[in-house]
Amino acid sequence: MMELRTENLVVGYDKNPLIKNVNLSVKSGQILTLIGPNGAGKSTILKTITKQLKILGGAVYIGKNSMSGMRDSEISQSLSMVMTERMQTELLSGRDVVASGRYPYTGKFGILSDEDWAKVDEAIALVHAQDVQNQDFRKMSDGQRQRLMLARAICQDTDILLLDEPTSYLDMGFKLDILANIRMLARDRNLAIIMSLHELDLAQKVSDTIACVKGDHIDRIGTPEEIFDGTYVQELYGVSDTSFDPVTGEVFLNPSRGTPKVFVIGGGGSGIAVYNRLQRQSIPFVAGILQENDREYQTARALATEVISQKAFYPMEEAQIAQAKKWMDQCESCICTLKTEEFGPLNEANRKLLEYATEIGKLSMS
Amino acid sequence: MKKRYTIAFTIFICALIALFLWNVGVGSVNMSLGDFFALFGKDGSDSTLYQIVWKIRLPRIAAAILLGGALSVSGFLLQSFFQNPIAGPYVLGISSGAKLVVALTMIIFLQRGLTLNSAGMVIAAFVGSLIAMGFVLLISFRVSKMSLLVVCGIMIGYICSAITDFCVTFADDSNIVNLHNWSLGSFSGMTWENVQMIVVIVAAGVIITFLLAKPIGAYQLGETYARNMGVNVKALRIGLILLSSMLSACVTAFAGPISFVGIAVPHLVKLITKTAKPIVLIPGCFLCGAVITLFCDGIARTVFAPTEISISSVTAVFLVPVVIAAMLRKQGNR
Fold it and tell me: I need a surface site. Which of A194, A236, A329, B57 has the fewest CB within 10 A?
């Protein structure tokens, strides 16, 4: 059992304390993720833990030992890292880069033993990078490089792994791949992992604990369920309540301003494409009638000027139909994303709205 | 890969032996291979030829080998330190700094009727190297662009050369003629006493560098990662500076400033061995530097014989294309 712990740590650049009282802890088998807006100090904290920045106060403990009392070579055997700085290499293959992770274990001249090479190969296999390992590291894609950097950290054989934005610049496939690997390292290899992430939806899915860094302090530490609740995350990042869905981690743009011009009758997700198109064309619109558990409700709430809605699992009422008709009168046109046969028996209200739109001649086909 | 290294080192050693024989053989008095081996015979030891070979040619060859190697290793250290492919003791102005302090010290000594011995020369050159290095470092903290650093280094070199020329022109001594020759860079007039001193300094410098191959390799990957690998980055940087200054100071003290060997040889070795690993590059640079310098010195003293041209003129002709090619290649990789 290993633990990385910071105790009243003060971090910052050039003796200017930026964040005080950083009390974080991550144990073997767990993933601690730092989230927070750009410039909030996530990297500053990670750089202080890796000794790139001086500790301005407090302490970092690896197990029971304070890091400032440990020698560099000791630290290198207990903490490995993948930073955002690109590794500069010259004439090195991917395998050579991974092999550099064995540095703390090699002798005077840094020559790897067969046992070391076995660990290198094992790490490469773990991240599925066998097919690119002999290419020049400089000529690889960011995704391949990041995989190999992870392999390098793995074969450094440490109890603690630290990653600074491991998924930046990666495409979706590599992002998922890297995070799956990170999860696997925590679960199967029992590593204590601390990392920073910008992708909230991913942070929510892989972390055991999330710490929110906000300007000069750690604002909140908790499980993903505790952090992704209500409007907390929106406040942390200073965005409007509707532009983030804490349940799915999805983000939305802001609505178009002005008086609504289009009324959209949607439901069941069929309207999302139209909402996005109208937002793109800067056309303000009204959406309805949606139940609050409809899968397009969050998108409509974020992008529409007004959403006529009913609580989940409640039948739609006359009052809402009347309200919708009133909006429809004000709009120039109406779009319906449901086909006539798609109105189920519980969606009578919207079928009536479609009839009304046809009646007043505002139904448009697109 | 291992096979490639073996081939490269075999080529270097064969070339070194061939150039050694050529350099012993040619000059104002030419001799054949047979003559050379005859010198080791019983009656060869008092001939004029023996005197020429033993007193003039052999020390010169030994110095060219050792100093050429030292210069290349120094260039490799500077390139590693600045993580810049166009760094070298000459372009960063370090050789010129050494030259300036040696010239000043010599003039002061000559005016008092003293002669500067080789140890004094080395110390003066080392001080000069460190002063120039200090300036380069000061600039490197302020500029992030490496090309700008090289430009500043060249400027420092020009200033030092200008002051040296100034002093040499106005110093009133007949010995100044020697000083003038030396300030252009030349291996002529090398004695066994000099070579002894060179062996000690160069051997110490190169062996220590070789022992640092592991941390230098880590440092090449970037400071951040080197530190995480347990390298004491601060101490290593100081070590790199002292070693490179010491090696290039030794060269400047005995042979004057020699251009482009330090900057070009590491690229040549990388090109041949297809690796940048210090454990291969350090001995590779030493051998290749020795080969190149011996070759250039041979050209310098034979091509317009009996007039000798300065060694830097020869190295520039052969090595500048290498430097330009290396720069273009680096550009292409971006």
Answer: A329
Residue A37 has phi, psi (to 5 degrees) of -65, 165
- CB of A247 within 8 A of CB of A317? no
8 Å CB contact between A182 and A166: yes
Provide the token pair at B276: 């940048």
Chain B residues whose CB is inside 8 A of the A50 CB are 224, 227-228
Going through B224-333 in order, the beta strands assigned E by DSSP cover: none
- Cβ pair B67, B256 in contact under 8 A: no
Contact A267, A338 (CB under 8 A): yes
Mean pLDDT value across residues B74-91: 89
Give one word for A214, left, alpha or beta, with left for phi > 0 and alpha for psi -120 to 50.
beta
Residue indicated by tokens 């030493």:
B286
Count CB-CB contacts under 10 A for residue A170: 22
The distance of B111 to chain A (nearest Cα, Å) reads: 50
Query: Distance between alpha carbon B54 and the CA centroid of its chain, in Å?
Result: 23
Nearest by CB to B276, which of A72, A91, A108? A91
**pLDDT category of residue A325 using cuts at 50, 70 and 90:** very high
| H or E segment and range at residue A256 | none
Q: For position B37, what pLDDT does the model report?
A: 73
- Residue B267, pLDDT score: 93
Asked if the model's pLDDT at residue A86 lies above 50, the reply is yes
Burial class (CB in 10 A: 0-12, 13-18, 19+), A251: middle
Q: Give pLDDT tens digits for B170-212.
A: 776 666 666 777 777 888 888 999 999 999 999 999 999 999 9
Q: Chain A residues with CB inside 8 Å of B227's CB?
A: 50-52, 72
Q: Which residues in A201-240 are b (16+ Cβ under 10 Å) and which e?
A: ebbbebbbbbbbbbeeebbbbeebeebbeeebbbebbebe
Domains of chain B: 2-333 (1.10.3470.10)
- Angle at the Cα of B223 (from B221 to B228), degrees rounded to 5? 90
**What is the pLDDT at residue B103?**
87
Please say whether the beta carbons of A309 and A242 come within 8 A.
Answer: no
> What's the pTM?
0.86
- Average pLDDT of chain A, as a whole number: 92
Q: A264: closest CA among A293, A240, A294, A241?
A: A294
Examine the predicted complex and report whether its ipTM is higher than 0.85. Answer: no
Residue A19 vs residue B168, higher pLDDT: A19
Is the CB of residue A14 less than 8 Å away from at least one CB of chain B? no
The dihedrals phi and psi of A8, each to the nearest 5 degrees, come to: 45, 40
Q: Which domains does chain A have, with CATH numbers?
A: 3-244 (3.40.50.300), 262-364 (3.40.50.720)
Residue A251, strand partner residues: A244
Alpha-carbon Rg of chain B, whole angstroms?
20
Compute how many other C-beta atoms are within 10 angstroms of the C-beta atom of residue A250. Answer: 14
Chain A touched by B224 (CB under 8 Å): yes
Measured distance CA(A334)–CA(A364) in Å, rounded? 6
Decide: B323 and B154 in contact? Cβ < 8 Å: no
Q: Do A50 and B227 lie within an 8 Å CB cutoff?
A: yes
Cα–Cα distance measured from residue A196 to residue A82, given in angstroms and rounded to the nearest whole number: 11
Answer whether A190 touches B (CB < 8 Å).
Answer: no
pLDDT at B175: 62
Mutate to test the interface with A, among B84, B214, B229 (most CBs of A within 10 A): B229
Residue B174 CB contacts under 8 Å (≥ 6 apart), including other chains: none
- The minimal CB distance from A76 to the residues B230, B270, B276 is found for B230
CB contact under 8 A, A89 and B232: no
